[in-house]
Write a structure and sequence with these properties.
- The protein has 492 residues and is of the alpha/beta class.
- The protein is built from 16 helices and 22 strands.
- It has 3 domains: 157 residues, no CATH class; 109 residues, NAD(P)-binding Rossmann-like Domain (Rossmann fold, 3-Layer(aba) Sandwich); 203 residues, Spore Coat Polysaccharide Biosynthesis Protein SpsA, Chain A (Alpha-Beta Complex), CATH 3.90.550.10.
- 31% of the residues lie in helices and 23% in strands.
- The strands form 4 sheets. Strands 15, 16, 17, 18, 19, 20, 21 and 22 form an 8-stranded mixed beta sheet that branches.
Length: 492
């Protein structure tokens, strides 16, 4: 979790122990543009002191007044919403008509913040479940793929190190790197089977794993929130770990060594990292399968999964036809989105506003359909796409103004559908993103969609069937709304 949020919890608990009344606020949902992400926290003391942030400042000012007057969270948790209308969004300093919801709870011994901090200090990932009626919290072990969830009755949030750093070797350089990573709230794993190094490892906050590096790395199942650095200079240890890490979706894989050592690694016939660009796709597929196994679902290979690209929006805030606007590398926004979708799906149907765009998408081997009532909103466009595609086993719904979604993420959503998911979506840092996978069983509901809500209501009404795929792909939550959004997201 963010170090700022850990400091919020520490300060809130310290204030409570001083006998002060403290309210703890957590963002549970956002619409449109919001200054802080889901899960961001703020603590407010009864005299108005505040730590943390959930907005640009105006929301905090209102919360301070509410806490002082005991108008909110005096006895039990409450849900507070800011920015329902554009006027309210402007008043609270929320950009672009953004809206956010917070759960505000009084901090007490029953909220178990002290125990939560103790577990986080031991590098544990913890799921905290807050009952909105009683105000009591329970703690249980968290999982890497867990995300914040709120159903109106229970707030379930995951705390602790969400980013992992795996270090091969227990030497002095490892110690320095481990300590720096710990200060940045990484969960650090050190692997070294050598007896002479194990006896000298005394960093209590970072445990030492004595297993063979390739076995341990394989068991860790590195995801998009993981990095690995090999530091032993011993190819018998470093290269074993590197070969396994390069098959994973780790966002960074590195090793210390000279140019000669690096050349030797590339010439080693045992290495299979020459296909490394495909490693992310393979691992995201494993993540999808793991989530599906937990639901008791099985593979249904060779399904007819159709990609639907919604490219009939008006782009009013961009100032011009944003879907035709080139990205920094020269490819139009919508064409790039179509290209990624077509790379993972044999059939893609693109919804457009006019026939002018057909030629560009035809070059990407995509079908097109003109949506006559596109002005009604995204729901109308999606219904038009589904009707044009016809009945299929499943659909992968993508947005044309989100060109930075990686093909590996699209492949993971497709594979989730192929393994029997009714609904599937990627999640980046607890935020649901695109594309969304929808089973063909929802065909009638899809063709009946109207207005601008798209499939949001369908996902909310059937959340129990939604398979959540954690990804390290910031593109799933990055749409291009204004010219300044054209720069690609930082790879994480």
């Amino acid at each position: 979790m963010d170090s700022v949020d850990i400091e919020v919890l520490r300060t809130a608990e310290a204030w409570r122990k001083q006998g002060r009344h403290v309210a703890l606020g957590t963002i549970v949902k956002t619409w449109g543009s919001a200054p802080r992400p889901v899960g961001a926290m703020v603590a407010i003391r009864d005299d108005g002191q505040v730590v943390g942030s959930v907005s640009g400042g105006c929301v905090e000012d209102d919360l301070i007044e509410k806490v002082r007057s005991k108008a909110v969270a005096a006895q039990k948790p409450q849900l507070v919403t800011y920015g329902v209308t554009n006027e309210e969004a402007t008043r609270w300093g929320l950009p672009c008509g953004g809206t956010l919801q917070l759960v505000v709870e009084p901090v007490s011994s029953e909220t178990r913040v002290a125990e939560l901090l103790e577990r986080i200090g031991r590098q544990q990932l913890v799921r905290r479940r807050l009952d909105m009626e009683s105000g009591r919290a329970t703690l249980e072990p968290g999982r890497w793929q867990d995300v914040l969830e709120f159903d109106g009755r229970v707030l379930s949030a995951v705390h602790g190190p969400r980013w992992r750093l795996v270090l091969i070797g227990a030497g002095q350089l490892t110690r320095y790197l481990a300590e720096m990573a710990r200060m940045l709230d990484y969960h650090v794993v050190v692997i070294d089977p050598r007896e002479e190094y194990a006896s000298g490892w005394d960093l209590d906050s970072v445990p030492l794993n004595r297993g063979m590096p390739d076995d341990v790395v394989r068991e860790l199942e590195l995801d998009g929130h993981s990095a690995l650095v090999a530091l032993t200079h011993d190819p018998k240890l470093d290269d074993l770990a590197l070969m396994e890490a390069l098959k994973s979706a780790a966002f960074y894989v590195g090793a210390i060594g000279s140019k000669k050592n690096n050349g030797d690694r590339h010439r080693d016939p045992r290495r299979d990292d020459r296909r490394a660009p495909r490693r992310e796709r393979a691992h995201l597929g494993r993540q999808a399968r793991a989530a599906l196994r937990s639901l008791g679902l099985r593979s249904q290979a060779d399904l007819n999964v159709v990609g639907l690209l919604l490219a009939a929006g008006s782009a009013s805030r961009f100032g011009s036809d944003k879907l035709r606007h080139p990205l920094p590398h020269g490819v139009p926004i919508a064409v790039q989105a179509a290209r990624h979708l077509r790379a993972e799906l044999s059939r893609v149907v693109v919804v457009i506003r006019s026939t002018d765009a057909r030629e560009a998408f035809a070059a990407e081997r995509c079908e097109t359909v003109v949506c006559e009532n596109a002005d009604e909103g995204m729901g109308a466009s999606l219904a038009c796409a589904v009707r044009a595609a016809g009945r299929a086993d499943a659909y992968v719904v993508a947005l044309a103004d989100m060109p930075y979604v990686r093909p590996a993420t699209i492949a993971a959503v497709r594979e989730a559908l192929e393994h029997g998911a009714g609904l599937a979506a990627p999640y980046f840092r607890a935020r649901r993103g695109h594309p969304v996978g929808i089973a063909g069983a929802y065909y009638e509901e899809l063709v009946s969609l109207r207005g601008d809500e798209g499939a949001r209501h369908l996902l909310s009404a059937n959340e129990a069937r939604l398979v959540k795929i954690p990804v390290g792909d910031p593109g799933v939550v990055r749409d291009i709304d204004r010219p300044e959004d054209l720069a690609p997201p930082i790879r994480t």
